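Example for tutorial group B:
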């Protein structure tokens, strides 16, 4: 037996335990309560495990009585607490192009070229709107994407990025440029596959349909135009509570919330978009952009399915929206129904 065999056995047992845990016939809230009771009463059994450490971070992050431990973060993560309005004033002082409220910046991250073709079919109805496609991709995909866009009816640009930070890091970079060009509404999309989930294709198609169906686009853009408090609109059925879906990201979520000056207990009230595709006002992004997250804060790509800075920022879009004074809604939103319908049992997320 090789030296690595014990590690393989431990990893197998760990993965099997996770699968059994998430497929137990109990709802998410009951599972979280059971976890809390178990970890509270038997800490000595779990204190060296990552789930236990993550649970401790969740307790600290959501407690008004415990300050976030700044010393317990990597040295290369900045510890300053930038004022959320810093970037807002930076843009306000510039002469921005006079885009209309109907203008739309569509920011797309292309990692899977086959999915990009599928996405373009969904985007076809947008050709009647005043919009521009900002496409980020890897160097390996650059030529294929450029060839695919040669005869496009859309105005577009293509930017090349290192394969780091998934769809999140390229989006943050491109969003700053789109805002400087004067776009007030941004649609964030990416070529989601989620190969680690058997239902990954269903997840992607459901999101595309709910965000890009012509009637949905018309309704969402009208709501954003008429109701100034709506800042972020995600696909119906994919708006889920942060406090039930921290995943392995509690430390990074706590860190980012700390830097954004979000009161810890406020996290319990916020929900985010699972799948990270949505419409968002430019100003709802400004608190997050003001943090100036650096590429070195994002892990090297290694096929991770959770627990990276990109996964944490996915949840922080909702925090940024809240700190900018806006609310989150879902794609079923209308002038008669402005509430976000929260999904506590998301079928595509563990």
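The residue assignment follows.
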């Amino acid at each position: 037996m090789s030296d690595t065999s014990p590690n393989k056995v431990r990893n197998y047992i760990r993965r099997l335990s996770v699968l059994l845990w998430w497929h137990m016939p109990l709802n998410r809230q009951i599972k979280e309560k059971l976890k809390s009771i178990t970890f509270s009463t038997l800490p000595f059994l779990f204190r060296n495990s990552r789930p236990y450490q993550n649970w401790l971070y969740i307790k600290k992050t959501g407690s008004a009585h415990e300050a976030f431990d700044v010393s317990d973060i990597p040295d290369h993560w900045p510890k300053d607490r930038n004022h959320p309005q810093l970037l807002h004033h930076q843009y306000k002082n510039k002469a921005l192009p006079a885009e209309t409220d109907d203008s739309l910046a569509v920011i797309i991250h292309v990692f899977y070229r086959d999915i990009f073709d599928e996405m373009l079919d969904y985007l076809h109805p947008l050709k009647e709107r005043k919009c521009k496609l900002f496409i980020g991709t890897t160097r390996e995909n650059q030529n294929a994407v450029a060839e695919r866009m040669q005869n496009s009816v859309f105005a577009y640009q293509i930017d090349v990025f290192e394969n780091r930070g998934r769809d999140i890091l390229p989006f943050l970079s491109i969003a700053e440029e789109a805002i400087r060009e004067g776009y007030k509404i941004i649609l964030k999309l990416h070529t989601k596959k989620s190969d680690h989930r058997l239902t990954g294709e269903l997840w992607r198609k459901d999101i595309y349909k709910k965000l890009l169906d012509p009637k949905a686009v018309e309704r969402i853009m009208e709501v954003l135009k008429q109701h100034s408090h709506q800042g972020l609109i995600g696909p119906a059925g994919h708006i889920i509570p942060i406090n039930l879906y921290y995943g392995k990201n509690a430390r990074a979520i706590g860190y980012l919330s700390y830097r954004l000056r979000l009161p810890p207990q406020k996290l319990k009230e916020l929900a985010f978009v699972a799948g990270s595709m949505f419409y968002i006002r430019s100003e709802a992004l400004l608190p997050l952009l003001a943090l100036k997250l650096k590429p070195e804060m994002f892990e090297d790509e290694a096929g991770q399915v959770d627990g990276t800075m990109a996964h944490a920022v996915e949840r922080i879009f909702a925090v940024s929206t809240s700190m900018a004074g806006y609310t989150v809604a879902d794609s079923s939103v209308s002038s008669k129904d402005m509430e976000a319908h929260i999904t506590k049992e998301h079928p595509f997320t563990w």
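Residues 87 and 202 are 37 Å apart (CA to CA). Compare this with the pattern of hydrophobic and polar residues in the output above.
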